[in-house]
Each structure stands twice: as C-alpha cells, then as structure tokens.
Amino acid sequence: MTNTPKPLAIHKAMSTLVWPKFGPGMLLEHGDLELLPAYTREINRLMFRSLFGCGVVCGLKVDVAVHCGKPRITVECGLAIDCEGDPVYVPKTQVFDLDGECDTKFEFPLWVVLCGTSKCCAPRTAACSCDDDETPAVCTRERDAFEIRVLDAALGCGCQDSPTTGIWDTPCKCADPSMLCHQNHYNGVCGCKDGDCDCCDCDCVVLARIDETNDAEKPWEADHSVRRFIRPVLMRDPLVAPPQAQAVGTLTNTMVAKKVVRPRGTIATITPPNT
C-alpha cells in the first residue's frame, strides 16, 4: 500500500526538445546525426537564457584611444551570451580604427556592440550527381565567429537605466532589482512566453558607450554602465543554520564546505540568530 495521492486531473503535452535513439543495425540518416549536436545546443540555450539572460559574462573591456585624430577602439578578450542563449567568445584582444579616413566626423555618443556569427567551413561533396550536373557540396564544419560593431544608437542587449539605490556601498554586488534591465530576471519572467514565438528580440550585446570628454589628451572615454553584466553569485548554504554558521565565522563572512551557486540577481535572505 502506497501513500501516493491520486491525481485529480492529468494533462499531458509534448516538449520541443528531441534527442536521437539508436539501435543495433539501424541505418542512420542525415537527420539522425544532426539531432546529436542540435539537442545539446538547444538545451544549453534554454538553460543559459533562462538562468542568466543575455549580457557580458566576463572580460570584454572597451578602451578608446586617439589615432590619426580619430578613435581607435580596443576590446579585450572575454565571453558574452546573446539573447538566444548562445555564447559569443572573443579569444584575444581586438584592436581596430573607427574609420580609416581621418577627416570623417562622428556624432557622439557611439555604442560598441558584440554580435555572434558563424562561418561554414570544409565543404565536401554530399552525394553523387548525374553526369550532366555539378556535384553539390555542403560544409562539414561550422565555426563560431563574432563581429564588433560601432553604432550611433543602442541596438542590442544592455541596460539603459542607471542604478537607483545605494548598491555600490554594499558587500553584495547584486544587480539593482528596481532597474528595468533586471526586473524580469528577479521576477523569474522567461524571455519567451510561448514555445513557438521568437525568443530573441536583439542580435547583439552592448559592451560600452563612447562619450566625448573635455580632456584634449583623451577626448573620448568608454562607459561600461550600459552593459548588462551577468555572473553566478556564491551564497550562504541554506542548510546551515545561523547558529552553526556563526560558530565558523560571522554571518557576512562565513566559509562553509559546500558552495551554492545561483545566477546574479538572486537575493539570499539571511535570518539573524535569536539573541
């Protein structure tokens, strides 16, 4: 006899995630093998955009210097996640001039954004063709790539509003929940309301805004407050009661054996011990 309660109603439906199953002696087709990387990519996309959303994960610092009287932009190596949940990896520092013509004028502010792309590589004959037809070829490798664009408008995943609370003075570097940029994350709102809708409303990630200054030696500077920064945050183990934690250290500086990792934006409520 079990204590499992009897359900009052059951509703079943299908997910969009599909993975392949193989059996002995099975003749594999193109679509069967394509499901192997497709399932892994889709599940990673779902987890990344649901847990973190889009933004800069690490690095990607922007600097701007003077070259030939015009901006020379440097973007350090780093990693971002676009709004589809795909990683955009910059493996080494990128340096480029805003314009090769030294007499071109620009209207500031300017926006530096990072966009993920891909390139088809290693083409190979896919099938036999008729004698009179040219043999078709398809790519056998798809390599991730990226583009760094400088725009005159903020088009991409970023934060247009500034922090409104005194979060800079607190030891926890959590994002301000009052900012529109982070409200959906704190409220647990998914980026997509329906499985058939387009989850991505932007193709690029904002890295910085370039503003003019009054300094003749450095006439432009990069403002990173407009980017959406995402990192996991280590929080106190909720299974450790406050008195136990106090025996190891203070509530604000407790080190326990187990780490609990949650996406940035999650607030861990610490209940002080009874006095």
Outline the secondary-structure elements.
Elements: H1 30-51, E1 55-59, E2 62-67, E3 70-75, E4 78-81, E5 87-90, E6 94-97, E7 110-125, E8 137-151, H2 180-186, E9 204-212, E10 220-223, E11 232-235, H3 242-248, E12 260-263
Antiparallel strand pairs: 1-4, 2-3, 3-6, 4-5, 7-8, 7-9, 9-10, 11-12
Index terms:
275 residues, 2 domains, 3 helices, alpha+beta, 12 strands, flat, Triple-stranded beta-helix, four-stranded antiparallel beta sheet, disordered C terminus
Give an overview of the whole structure.
The chain is of the alpha+beta class and 275 residues long. The chain folds into two domains: 30-127 and 137-230, Triple-stranded beta-helix (Sandwich); 232-275, no CATH class. The protein is built from three helices and twelve strands; from the N terminus they run H-E-E-E-E-E-E-E-E-H-E-E-E-H-E. It starts with 29 loop residues before the first helix and ends in a 12-residue tail after the last strand. The model is unreliable at 248-260 and 265-275 (pLDDT under 50).
Task: Offer a quick outline of the entry.
With 275 residues, the protein is α+β, with helices and mostly antiparallel strands.
Characterize the largest beta sheet: strand count, sense, and whether it forms a barrel: 4 strands, antiparallel
| CATH domain topology of the largest domain | Triple-stranded beta-helix
Structural class: alpha+beta
State the order of secondary-structure elements, H for helix, E for strand. HEEEEEEEEHEEEHE
Low-confidence stretches: 248-260, 265-275
CATH class of the largest domain: Mainly Beta
